[in-house]
Specification:
The chain is an alpha/beta fold. 36% of the residues lie in helices and 15% in strands. Strands 1, 2, 3, 4, 5 and 6 form a 6-stranded parallel β-sheet that branches. One of its GO terms (cellular component) is membrane.
């Protein structure tokens, strides 16, 4: 039986998104999927990263994604923070390098989902999904949201970044808040759910 091939692709400045992405990758692997983790190329200089107190420890050893790599997978999990309610420049730079893939229809019909984070509770975790949809739509990809299947989305005992669009976290204005147990749990569950959906599609094609 053919395994679903899934890429978990992260851009993370302070490690919040990287933590969630690691959980999603683990959840996807639990289904038997073939999972490869990547990082998105950095555009900030090392000097700027030091001044920003960036934490790349969770992604530094991951291979940097080449846009052409995207066509090799059945499912894509993009994990990146919000920047003013949209994808950061590093992610947009990757998207801008997919023109050839668009022209050849190489991403048509592939499944995709997202994980994100914001500095505040209303800082853009949902709008980042919405403002990234045009990229998915232009490539003809199929977005897989998580809906309200997980009880954590309906609990109001604590602040979380989770939405029916995807798992997410709230990092805090000074990035001091780490992903909570609930946010990590939903991220792992999202990885499992996504891999199951992609797996059904792959098996149906055989």
């Amino acid at each position: 039986m053919s395994k679903a091939k899934i890429a978990v692709i992260s851009y993370s400045l302070w490690g919040h998104v990287a933590e969630l992405a690691k959980e999603a990758a683990e959840g996807a692997r639990a289904t038997g999927a073939d999972v490869t983790e990547y990082q998105i190329a950095e555009t900030f200089s090392p000097e700027v990263l030091v001044k920003m107190k960036a934490d790349k420890s969770l992604t530094k050893d991951l291979p940097v994604l080449n846009a052409q790599d995207l066509k090799n997978f059945d499912g894509l999990v993009f994990a990146f923070p919000t920047r003013f309610g949209r994808a950061p420049a590093q992610v947009s730079a990757l998207f801008d390098r997919t023109g050839g893939l668009w022209a050849s229809g190489s991403l048509l019909g592939k499944h995709v989902t997202m994980i994100t984070s914001a500095g505040t509770q209303h800082g853009g975790v949902e709008t980042t999904a919405l403002t990234t949809f045009p990229f998915f739509v232009h490539h003809g990809m199929i977005y897989v949201p998580i809906g309200f299947q997980f009880p954590e989305l309906s609990e109001i005992s604590e602040i979380t970044g989770i939405s029916p669009y995807n798992a997410a976290t709230v990092a805090g204005g000074n990035n001091s808040r780490r992903p909570t147990e609930k946010e990590l749990r939903v991220s792992k569950a999202q990885g499992t759910y996504f891999a199951e959906i992609v797996g059904q599609f792959v098996r149906g094609k055989i």
